[in-house]
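Forwarding these from the shared drive since the link keeps breaking.
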Amino acid sequence: MDPRALHTPDMFSRETQALMEAAIDAIVVIDQRGTMIAVNESARRMFGYRSDEMLGENVNLLMPEPDHSAHSGYLRAHLSTGVAHVIGKGRDVVAKRKSGDSFPAHLSVGRIPDGGPARFVGFVRDNTLQVEREEQSRLAQERFTNVARLVTLGEMAAGIAHELNQPLTAINAYARACEHFVTLAQPDIGELRSAVREIGAEALRAGDMIRRMRQLVRAEPGEHAPIDANAVIEDLRVLISADARIHGAHVHYRLSSEPVRVIADGVQLQQLLLNLVRNAFEALATQPPRAREIEIATRRVEGEVEISVTDNGPGVAPAIADRLFDPFSTTKSSGTGLGLAISRTIAQSHGGRVGFRAVSPQGTCFFVRLPALEEVTS
């Protein structure tokens, strides 16, 4: 029998065929061999074939490699074992048009329960526009986060300049000392060597500060990789200390004695932590300088890693508590209301969350929780 003859009211009622033709999604019906026995107009339009070019052909015609070669094996395995890996479920796939172009699609497959030979119906939705929108949204978010990093460093400029000025001043002093030593009739080589060594150490200190700044402002997105949250904090100590001096605050660290590893983009995690720290500095503005205290801590909690920043400020105003992490929500006259919103976005992109809790006798603890990376032990 000509397989195209199966695409007739004898197999499907007129009502069924009318429904198929009215569907927006592509509909493809195959038999137990994977042969296409019915397709609707949306399928013909989506894949670029005529009916006679699809009916009677194997459905792998619509698939790029490796699915093109593997599909028949998948179908035979299901028919022999009854185990459904795709059937009854939806999943994102890559499909192929007649032109040879591949495109992202969402596929749902079901088995037709009519008691006869196995037949399957697939519903295909072209996800090209959705994927493009998601990519555009991701790129926009990356640009926004990059700008936010530059804004953060701009706000920290005074502290960074002060921190860089210290090693530069020391280098200048040691260089003058070296100049003095070499003019002596009998130069003290030991003193000269010591001064040169100090110049090198201070130069490394300044270079380390610049290196950490460059890490924060780099434009290219980083990869999510295993990273120790404690190491992220240690890398920011110098920058945080510089900012703390400007704000007249004391920063204490209470880091886990054990590695607290997560899968993360280290630069984004640094950005999130700096946002929380700067939020704490701003919350302490009404406190006397000598009384401004911040604690940065890490710990494991129920399969998660928590990084927290606690201040002894006045606490979160009830009027803003419910929308604290919404964009542009702020009670500060000079604040943008974006720091905590960006922090939430970064946390969510890592499968985590941010939150806050009140502390006694006063103050607030802001925290981020990320899934802990479970170490494999032999």
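-- next protein --
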Amino acid sequence: MLMSAAITDAASLGSAHVAGSRYLHLLDVARKLAPIRTAVVHPCDAVSLVSAMEAMEKGLIVPVLVGPVAKIRKAAQEVSRDLKDVELIDVPHSHAAAERAVALAREAQVEALMKGALHTDELMAAAVDKAGGLRTARRMSHVFAIDVSHYAKPLFITDAAVNIAPDLDAKRDIVQNAIDLLHALGIESPKVAILSAVETVSSKIPSTIDAAALCKMADRQQIIGGILDGPLAFDNAISSEAARTKGISSPVAGQVDVLVVPDLEAGNMLVKQLVYLAGAEAAGIVLGARIPIMLTSRADSDVARLASCALALLLVRRRLKPP
């Protein structure tokens, strides 16, 4: 399995674990594959431009820089980067850059998109446009790949960036997108926890009802390829001891690969708590579109940005496309 070499026994972790180290195996595997031609949308600041160039240098992407060329060249001068062999497409502003990048994807001229110096909403508005976007039969959703020292393997959280308050049908796609991603990483039967505040089904907490329904959908093969359990509170999902204390018998508790959050607010807070309080690294990618979309952030570390590119590369080269 691609990620198995990065999974460490929990007893050996502790303070010796270096944040982001579990991404290194992922990067090594990805670099053995041909880089993907990637439209980098509005890379008009130093951070986004350097990120694209470093991914190119690591053999992960072939960048196509889409934005106001004068601003892109100015950013390149500020960080002493040579754009001589890089393709540039000149458009007047960030909105036009998003539309042009999406058009390139629809025309099969690029294999992935990478966010530059523009708001996520601006890029995703072009991607989800009904007429000219990148929609498929599957709902688009975002997955964070988290490397946190006090958990024994990589942890994936969805959806903390795209779907604000998903209904049951959207959650089905969110779960399936995450399972498909883990299959691309070589994790054959990912364990998926559907999170809520409690581990019992209650009519007063709608997310518990959704969790129960999703598990039954998996039983009926409406969700395939993973092992689901829920509702589970966060402690029960992460800790088998916590689950035992509460009398919960679960094939997922303490071994979870994917945490499915009730809504964007819960997920966003969870990811940022892990990053800023637990020293985690978070790489991310949007799934369910015609091609992968990397929503890198200015706050991301270098290794997290590269890991996002590696995730996109593995998805493309393994040809896991939504219906």
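Residues 54 and 153 are 26 Å apart (CA to CA). The chain has two domains: 18-135+291-323, 137-288.

- D.
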